[in-house]
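Record pair follows.
FIRST:
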Amino acid sequence: MWFKNVRVYTLSAPLTSDLNAWEQALAEFKFSPLSAQEAVKIGFSYPLHASIKHYTHVSQDIIFFALKRQEKILPAAVINEEMQPKVEAMEQEKGRPLSRKEKQSLKEELQLALLPRAFSRSSLIQGYYDPTNQWLVINSSSASKAEDVLALLRKALGSLPALPWLDSHKLTQQLQLWLQNKSLPRGFEQGVEVELKAPDEGGAKVKFSNHLLTTEDVQTHLEDKLVTSISLQQPDGLSLQVSDDGGIKKIKFHDLLTTQNDDLGWDDLVARLDADLLLMCSALNQALLNIKQQLSSES
């Protein structure tokens, strides 16, 4: 329930806040299990809890949703083991080595044949639409999986004018300043992790973890490298890592936040989950807003 990594998208036009419209639209693209010959299947599922059969949940105007992804697992080692004797047999029959194209065709045929016997793996990607800040927040570290969510939302809702939430050029400049402990977003302190990469063809990389970032051995890397990610933290709120592509990773909420609703218990599942969602969104939205405002103030 507490998001760990997010991709954020700003909307250039508001989405409908009609919960019934959302519920009907997402239900039309609901998840259904993989068939024997399908490798990947996605569809909307229940965001609050598997026992709560609604495709949306609204809390103080914020609309929560979830996409379920199911995929067949075909390890490369299994494919190669099945493929090798077939390649050898075909090469002996033809009296020559198979071309790359022939091997690829054989591999695709083999994958199709193995799909019905493969295990499947499911995952749930949650997200929410915040009409106040006009952004979508997707609980995923993967840009491609977040784009899958956007694509299906676009099909369901008919339109989704989503844009990157941060200007990449300004973000690159800010990451350099944040490592120098300058112009930090309001409420944040410098964290203890940073990754840098040289902009040249070689692209030398360096990573520091659990390290004081103001020390000379870290700062000297700014002479020939760019910061690709850096951690920031709030004393009693949350910590996170900002990447140069705008992704937010390694989100950790302080115990003071995650235990705040413990007195509610779990007798009323909906009420407890709703309360936790509000806490999470309040803390996360404020952190995102402070980061965005810091970039805007430097323009």
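SECOND:
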Amino acid sequence: MKNWIIGLMLAGSGLLAARPARAQTGEYAAPGFPMLPQRRQPLPAPGPPKLVSPVLPRFWHEPDPERQSAGRNKFFDFVSAQAKFPEAARPTAAQPNALLPTGRLLVSIQVRPDGSVRQPPRVTKRELAQPETAYLPAALHALDAEAQRVLGALRFVRSKAAQDSLLVPIRFIAE
């Protein structure tokens, strides 16, 4: 009996001293399961850097008029600095006589209690220099996408309010 226990101990220590099992190195697949080679995922293509907003105050809740004005100015300074006239809205070589869409978009955003903007912001109204039918649909879509990009990146301070809704005007003027 003693010899049997000693034999088990020696066998167990031999298992510990052996090289790692093939399942640990990825060389082994359980019966019935295919052995798939591990491939590294390609890195995502570099795109434009993601827009990051500073944490802005919820100026519309501010009772002090000076702090409300300072918060509103900070908000509109960020939006006007980030919103650019999109290149896709400019006339192309194929259609050089197309009109540049200029004017104002009214965009509705929903601000969650954690300060993030519920995606995507929704363009509710376009107040353009000409009727919408005078512009290329791709140009109007480019303006909408730029407004959604800038306003979708906004972050506000946390609040106990359930959810706030804002209607933000964005003016696009071609330089």
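COMMENT: Residues 115 and 157 are 5 Å apart (CA to CA).
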